[in-house]
Inverse folding.
């Protein structure tokens, strides 16, 4: 049995973290049995990872280790893995008879897709912060703000876009998604980046859409974003719903 470590939120039994969604999509797509353990966005992340022998994913400027989610621990191999890309590669290698997250010969391209997708957004990701703060457990908000501020080297709440800057960031975000839409248009048809077959690249986009869908219920701008690009993202979100099972 695989244990999947995901962020706890104010939405019972669900997260809107884009990175952990990539791994949940992956596990469900492969139809692998797993269970979820909800971890608070606090020092608990490091405690859990160290306890299960799950390695850190990066280092702080002072050289200390940083532990992040998503993470999994596979009882069958006694292996712990963190980072959605590394988890996807592990699942493909360990369970070769399940649907591929990286179809043969595409792992390098999909890794590049991940970097390209993230780089398109620049500082527009700051538009997501108010949504994230609303779904975090109240006791976790301070840790999140401190951790993000430390990573950025400046107070997070002081750099959230407002007024004219916010409008510019919205335009940048829409333009970024339209560029990704052009990538999808070259797939020969079908809702996924590879046409009719989902792959990890679609789960990267799906992770972002999870936040858009969560915000779209209350904020017209997010709903507009979801329905943009001729409905590309709404359609993709609908196609991915079958892989959103939470166990």
């Amino acid at each position: 049995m695989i244990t999947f470590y995901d962020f706890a939120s104010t939405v019972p039994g669900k997260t809107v973290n884009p990175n952990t969604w990539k791994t949940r999509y992956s596990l469900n797509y492969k139809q692998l049995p797993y269970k979820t353990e909800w971890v608070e966005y606090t020092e608990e992340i490091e405690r859990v990872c160290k306890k299960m022998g799950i390695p850190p994913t990066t280092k702080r400027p002072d050289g200390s280790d940083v532990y992040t989610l998503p993470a999994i621990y596979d009882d069958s191999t006694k292996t712990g893995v963190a980072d959605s890309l590394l988890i996807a590669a592990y699942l493909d290698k360990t369970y070769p008879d399940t649907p591929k997250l990286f179809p043969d010969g595409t792992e390098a391209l999909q890794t590049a897709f991940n970097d390209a997708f993230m780089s398109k957004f620049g500082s527009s990701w700051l538009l997501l912060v108010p949504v994230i703060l609303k779904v975090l457990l109240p006791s976790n908000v301070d840790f999140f703000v401190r951790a993000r501020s430390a990573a950025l080297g400046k107070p997070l709440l002081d750099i959230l876009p407002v007024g004219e800057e916010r409008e510019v960031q919205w335009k940048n975000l829409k333009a970024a998604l339209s560029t990704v839409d052009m990538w999808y248009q070259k797939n020969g048809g079908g809702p996924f980046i590879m046409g009719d077959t989902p792959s990890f690249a679609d789960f990267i986009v799906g992770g972002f859409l999870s936040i858009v869908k969560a915000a779209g219920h209350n904020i017209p701008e997010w709903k507009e974003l979801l329905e943009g690009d001729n409905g590309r993202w709404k359609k993709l979100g609908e196609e991915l719903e079958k892989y959103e099972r939470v166990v």
Summary: Residues 106-243 form a domain with the Glutathione S-transferase Yfyf (Class Pi); Chain A, domain 2 fold (CATH 1.20.1050.10).
